[in-house]
């Protein structure tokens, strides 16, 4: 890996995701962007790194870094992967852009021994307050989108996600919330505190074994 790639800092949720992944694992990163997480894992944890990215620009950036990444869509291009093909399947801040989150989550835990999912929690108190005060759909500060052209079509709260996991019979092995100061707190099932205070949430999931 190049020095430029090594020195690039990880986004706060990606740093936590990296810490959850065991060295030498087989990892598929869905919606991997420019490959920052995969490159970090390949260099620092000697993983077998694979990725799927929707944008051609992202794929080109990954390939330029020597990463094995293909262009694909989480909603349509995961079905052909065999069961248990990976130790970890990562979906970092991509779930909200999928058309069928239920189907995507079900597929994640089929093709991976563990699924790690992160998302922005729209149940945060600042989001609620902004909606009350301004009467408009809140848009993340760093986003260049408005409500009408945003790729985020299925936003959710921590409680929404926990409910969906229970509906699908998925086991939450780890749940973590991150605030804007990158303080990490464990998420207890149906935690209203995490739902109010967590800017982001990260969950590690497995299938309930019969």
In words, what does this structure look like?
With about 210 residues, the protein is an alpha/beta fold. Residues about 1-5 have low confidence and may be disordered. Helix content is about 35%, strand content about 25%. It has an eight-stranded mixed β-sheet with strand order 3-2-1-4-5-8-6-7, with helices on both faces. The protein contains eight helices and eight strands, in the order ααβαβαββαβααββαβ. The protein has a single domain (about 5-205), classed as 3-Layer(aba) Sandwich (Rossmann fold), CATH 3.40.50. It has helices at about 5, 10-20, 35-45, 55-65, 100-110, 125-135, 160-170, 190-195; strands at about 25-30, 50-55, 70, 85-90, 110-120, 170-180, 185, 200-205.
The number of distinct structural domains comes to: 1
CATH architecture term? 3-Layer(aba) Sandwich
Largest beta-sheet characterization? 8 strands, mixed
Count of helical regions: 8
Order of strands side by side in the largest beta sheet? 3-2-1-4-5-8-6-7
The overall strand count is 8
CATH class bucket:
Alpha Beta
Estimate the helix proportion, in percent: 25-40%
Instruction: Give the CATH superfamily.
Output: Vaccinia Virus protein VP39
Q: Which class do the helix and strand fractions yield?
A: alpha/beta
Mean pLDDT: 90
CATH topology: Rossmann fold
Radius of gyration: 17 Å
Shape: globular
Q: Could you tell me the strand content as a percent range? A: 15-25%
Element string (H = helix, E = strand): HHEHEHEEHEHHEEHE
In a few lines, what is going on in this structure?
This protein has 210 residues and is α/β, with parallel strands linked by helices. It contains eight helices and eight strands.
